Amino acid sequence: MNDVVAVIMGGGQGTRLFPLTRDRAKPAVPVAGRIRLIDIPLSNCINSEIMRVKVLTQFNSASLNRHISQTYYFGLFTRGGVDVIAAEQTLSNRNWFQGTADAVRRSMHHAIDTHTRLVLILAGDHLYRMNYRGFINRHDETHADVTISVCPVSEKDASSFGLVHVDENGMVTKFAEKPTGEELESMRVDPERAVAGGRVPGAPFLASMGIYVFSPWVLEELLDAHPDANDFGKEIIPAALEKYRVSVHYFQGYWEDIGTIEAFYRANISLAKPGQFSLYDPDFPLYTRPRYLSPTRFNDSEVKESLVAEGSVVGQSVITSSVVGIRSIIHNGVELDGTLVMGNDYYETETERAASLARGIPPLGIGERTVIRKAILDKNCRIGANVKIVNEEGVQNHDGSNYYIRDGVVIIPKDEVIPDGTVI
Description:
Blueprint: E1 4-10, E2 30-31, E3 35-36, H1 39-47, E4 52-57, H2 62-71, E5 81-86, H3 100-111, E6 118-123, E7 126-128, H4 132-141, E8 146-153, H5 155-158, E9 162-166, E10 172-177, H6 181-185, E11 205-214, H7 216-225, H8 232-241, E12 246-250, E13 255-257, H9 261-270, E14 297-298, E15 302-304, E16 307-308, E17 313-314, E18 318-320, E19 323-324, E20 329-330, E21 335-341, H10 350-358, E22 365-366, E23 371-377, E24 382-383, E25 388-389, E26 398-399, E27 404-406, E28 409-412, E29 417-418
Parallel strand pairs: 1-4, 1-6, 4-5, 8-12, 14-17, 15-18, 16-19, 17-20, 18-21, 19-21, 21-23, 22-24, 23-25, 23-28, 24-29
Antiparallel strand pairs: 2-3, 6-11, 7-13, 8-11, 9-10, 9-11, 26-27, 27-28
């Protein structure tokens, strides 16, 4: 796989994930209590033996760049490595990246060389596990110029994705970006019909996962021929159908496009339940930065269907259907239900804790007798004692002074302070 280059799109602003993206790039958002979104495609690449990886960055990229540099180093005696390519001004173009296609167009000279046979375009904000060897083999077997990875989706969700229609050989005949009405009906496929490779769609629509394999000369031709095209799904893929052979790779595992707070919350909470995306695959591990933390300590705690990351201290509390991140401090009498706690970047010393209390600021962590339901607590939050974050009125969207509600989920932003006795 030394002749394959993976290009990961990591520069999107992530406006629909605000406020989690207020201070960081979307691929740098923590998931599962201990990894970041960018670790998922990077782990897939490593497990697929694709060691030449380029990550394109732009918005709020400092923490993302730092995480990549501290985590992924493949050694001196290899041509592989993970390179961060930031948006840059040149004599010919002084603008920011205008979209996924524009980002690749302006980074081609950094990403592709004479040893590159194929270019793998990946998203930096999806939750899935894929061995890209099968994806690349499908591209080679069909003698395609472009291959799109697709997965079956229901009629309810179909209009949220770019959809493909295929013939009996698995070659794309039509592509539609988020179609509705008659256009949506025209993209319907037979969910029971066997297709190329013996796969069965399993649902009446096939959604593009937003990841592609290109022959490099085809990618260059498409980007040069359409200089104003900024997006792969909306512009480059439809243009490819006019001239090139476009095939599909069928993916039927767990896949979640984490583009909204609702999807992000649902994906994280589902990780604690069996039968969803598995974090425990010894043959296909998820890599992240090692932190050398102590084991988590529980003091007469009750934990049900939850994940609790290392380095945490949990008092006499009840944790249900929740994800608790690294270095979390949870005091006695706390109740967490359907809550994502991202954890902390550091421990607070006794001196720092006393100084905070003297100023009327709660210590780092979650204070005694606090109840939290259906919420996301970003990194380094200070939640006081006797706090209730429960959204009893079922508000769907709201901006508070120190919190937000999106899709019915209460979000406490990074480094925020919630005083004792607060009710949200």
